[in-house]
Every structure is written in structure tokens, then in C-alpha cells.
């Protein structure tokens, strides 16, 4: 059975990722797990609508939401203070990092995915999945979230060109804390990831389907899950989860599984882009216009640097694409509406001009609801109400 309620032995809070960063927020004795006001800290292990569970010194607890906090305010990995009797959530502690994406829908709202992550394993394979532009997008996310990015290339055993892949990957950005090239199905391959998964550390994986994320998560957590009694397995005994969840790693830390998290639309990641492209960011300070898009603006320091051969056109192109995507996804609904209105207005003006040229009157628009004709004054009856 999946997501079963688990009896978990007593834990040391530090093993769950508790640190002075959180302890300082409540000025309490971290070791005792008791805060001054009698609230206890737990770490959000699963969050699904109104059903959330927290892992604390006494094990796994079902959390109770108060009226002013909902599941969308909470992410797996969050540290929360709860009432020890009622298990009511009293406070979500500040996060040292958080990963979010644009929520589904027209509004430019972000959806919180996971919190208090230390390392993000950006995973791809030594095959056609390898795509520097996609890797860069994930890197922007990690940098923006204040999470250490590690690039993991899997399936090194299935190619003769592992070295070439590794070299190319190492050339993508100096911002990676490490670039690994492994066979995810082999013990020594997995072992190279363990130094990021030690006590107090929390890691997660992103990458396309089939690159080996589940394989790695399984290997990194297998022994620990068994001893902790947290095992969600399918018929073949493999670890499976359907929603984001927190798991113990063999090396002492924690792994957050994010199933279905293959494509993450960029949203509100301007600072991540600025960090990844810090050379362009520095140059942009000397552009004539503050919001220079470095396309054809006069006095553009970035274009000047490109002409001087200091940065490549390909790099500037990648910046432009990421920047444009972030801008578009970060637009508010009002901005999106205004843009749509402007496009409709331009379209109508073009149509009207065409009709005028042909000496015809614009037909009535009974067929299109939201676009009333602005046929203009003196047009008489042809105008819709
Ligand atoms: N030979 C080899 N096979 C691998 C390697 N990594 C993953 N695989 C295999 O590739 C298949 C897909 O791996 P998964 O771990 O399920 O991939 P995933 O990234 O979790 O995929 P999703 O769950 O769809 O997101 C499995 O059959 C793995 O055994 C590797 O490094 N070498
Ligand atoms: Zn510029």
C-alpha cells in the first residue's frame, strides 16, 4: 500500500535537518525539541491538500491546519511549530531555500514545491536527453532558490562517449558545485552522490523522465527507509511515491522525492538568471537604458562586448530566451489581460483599415462575444450594442 502511516522511531532533530538557522527563530533549546511556548518543531514530510504529515522527534504526526494556514502555504521540507496536544500548526518557520514553479492557470502565481533544500541534483543522461539549454534552465532554478546545484550524468555505461559528455557538461557553467558522470544502476555510481546526502543535508532530483532519478533515490534511501519503517513500495518492491515526500537517506540526510516534476516552467527567477549570466549582468550596468534587452538598443554595453568578442552571441541568445520566458511567466494577470486587449485592439485596427481600403463597412460581430465592435462614430446601424 502506498503512503502508509508509519510508526517511526524517535529521531534526533538534527538528523531531520534542524539547524541553528531554525533554532534561532524560536530561541529554544534545539536538542530538547521543546520551545519556550511549549510548541514542538516538526518537518513537513508530505503535503496533500488538507492532509499533511510532519516528522519530528516523536516520529510522524498528522498535522491539523488552522483557519489562517492552508496546504498551499506549506511545502515538503518546511519546518513547522505545532501544538503537541492538538497537532495544530502554529507557525511555519522561515525557509533558507525554496523551490517553486508557476502554478497552472492564467495568473502569474507561483506554486511552492519544496522547502529547505540544500542540494539539487540536476539529472540527465549520456544520450539524446543531454541538452545544455535545458540543463541551464534547471541551473537557473537552483541558483534562484539558493540551492547548491550538482549536475549528474547517468547511463555512462551505455555509451562509448561518456568522457565527451562529461567534458561538454563541465563547460556549461562554473556554477555547478560538481559534475558527475555515473552508472546509476551501479553501487559505486550512487556512492559518488552520497557526500551531498550526509546528516543534516536535504537533497532532491530534477530531470526528464527515464534519466534515473527513481533509481538513484531508491539506492540512496533503501537501507534507511527499511530501518525507519518508511517504505512505500510497488509490487516489485521498488520505492514509489505519487506526491512529493521526504525520505531518509542511507548517508544520514534526507531526500525529497518530487515525482512528476520533469518540466519546471521558469517563474520569477530573475536573480537566478542574473547569477548564471553574471558577466552579462555586470555589463548591463553600463547599458544606457536600465531595462535594456540587449537586442538593438543604442548605448548597449552588452552588444558592444559581443562585438568586441568578449561574450559569444550564443550565450547572449540563451540569456535572451531565459529572460523572455521569465518575464512572460512572471506577468500578472492584469498585465496578461492588458497585453491581450492591446493585441485585439491592433487586430481590429488592421481589419478596419482593410475594410476602409476596400470601401466596405465592417460586418456586425454577433459571432464573437468578448469583442464588441468599435465601429466608430457615424457608422450608423451596423454597430453592435
Ligand atoms: N544501464 C543504465 N540504466 C539506467 C541508468 N540510470 C537509469 N537506468 C535505467 O533507466 C530506466 C529509467 O530509470 P528511472 O530511475 O525510472 O528514471 P526516472 O528519472 O525516475 O524516470 P521517471 O520516474 O519517469 O521520472 C530504468 O530501467 C533504469 O534502470 C544508468 O546509469 N545505467
Ligand atoms: Zn544592453
UniProtKB/TrEMBL annotation:
GO terms for cellular component: cytoplasm. Its EC number is 3.6.1.-. Residues 329-385 are annotated as: Disordered. Its main location: cytoplasm. Its cofactor is Zn(2+). The keyword Ribosomal protein does not apply. It is an enzyme of class 3 (hydrolase). The keyword Zinc applies. It is found in: Cytoplasm. Belongs to the TRAFAC class YlqF/YawG GTPase family. RsgA subfamily. One of several proteins that assist in the late maturation steps of the functional core of the 30S ribosomal subunit. Helps release RbfA from mature subunits. May play a role in the assembly of ribosomal proteins into the subunit. Circularly permuted GTPase that catalyzes slow GTP hydrolysis, GTPase activity is stimulated by the 30S ribosomal subunit. HAMAP family: GTPase_RsgA. This is Small ribosomal subunit biogenesis GTPase RsgA. It comes from Thalassovita mediterranea.
